[in-house]
Amino acid sequence: MPKPLLSAEAIFDEALRVLAEEGAAGLTIRTLAARLRCSNKTLYQQVGSYEVLVRGVVARAFARLELGFAADAAWEVAAESWCTELRAALLANPDLCTLMTIADRDVVIDHVHRLMAVLERDGFHHSRAVEAGGILAHVTLSMTLSDVAAPGEWDDPRVFATTVRWLVHGMALSRAEDNLRHHDRAGSPRTGRPARRRRNAS
Amino acid sequence: MPKPLLSAEAIFDEALRVLAEEGAAGLTIRTLAARLRCSNKTLYQQVGSYEVLVRGVVARAFARLELGFAADAAWEVAAESWCTELRAALLANPDLCTLMTIADRDVVIDHVHRLMAVLERDGFHHSRAVEAGGILAHVTLSMTLSDVAAPGEWDDPRVFATTVRWLVHGMALSRAEDNLRHHDRAGSPRTGRPARRRRNAS
After folding, report:
1. Cβ contact A170–B174 (<8 Å)
2. CB–CB of B169 and A165 under 8 A?
3. Dihedral, CA atoms, A156, A160, A166, A172, nearest 10 degrees?
4. Searching chain B, which residue's CA lies closest to the CA of residue A171?
5. pLDDT in tens, A101-139
6. Residue ranges per structural domain of chain B
7. Would you state the CATH architecture of domain B8-62?
């Protein structure tokens, strides 16, 4: 049953199946064209280039990832579980990691927004939540892709777990400082007392 | 003046000069053989393979890097400056970053030892200093190589600076916990009082 017209959706769905069944090395224009029963030329015309195909596959694979992180828990727990889940999802999809370049970092943006929502719910200012979401995503992706590319003693899971725990401590301190600063500015008129911290500062 | 015998030192010295003058793309067996006035075959026989040549060049380039970090300052300042200096050295040598793979992480080990010495001087237990040195190196290398490979909004230097600052906060907490635990174990018999923290734990 030859297909007269190939939708982008059909192409990328098939490409994801190829990736799942044959791995990153199996994902070629030739293989994909054969499975879609079209010529290599037709497929090139539809997707533009192999590079575009790969970037689209990575973006779609990420959009489908379910990061079942603990969004209802306190932000510290939620943030740690978000990083752990993202790392686990990457480790479970080594072929995706092989195809993924650091230029693909933006594909996690929807997942980062879900984490940011938890942080803002628990008192992070918006700009701090943006910063923290970016840092947790950057560190998780960089370290995990590194570990997948070069397995060895550096990829001990405890190294990653401690890294995330330390970042969460730092986030807690920044959050507290932000809120103190905000309290200093906003608090005095409301309470009628001078802000304590400022009075004690030398 | 043809050279009858090529020492490994002479080969790698010349390779580092090629890297400095012509960049990563210029470092080929052919170029290097021409500059050393030997045949490609002779050079292959000497170094084994292009891969071995590149790994050797990276290791030597790293051994020569002077990380002028603030080793005499308090550990928090020293650790931040170590990460900043390592990142700056990498950013100043983009050709080295191109050649470097994550498998080359062990080439920083001498630099990590210098950082660990500062941490142990300032009260970190040895195992915690090992852990912290490894994490700071891993995060700095992973993030910086990522940023070099894919420049863009994620490589804002403030992102890296905040990441390191947060890690240092986490290290401070772990150091304090370690020392409290140690005090609990060692303190009671010396002071004759039960360790407070333990008594209050539920």
Report:
1. no
2. no
3. -150
4. B166
5. 766 777 888 899 999 999 999 999 999 999 999 999 999
6. 8-62, 67-189
7. Orthogonal Bundle (1.10)
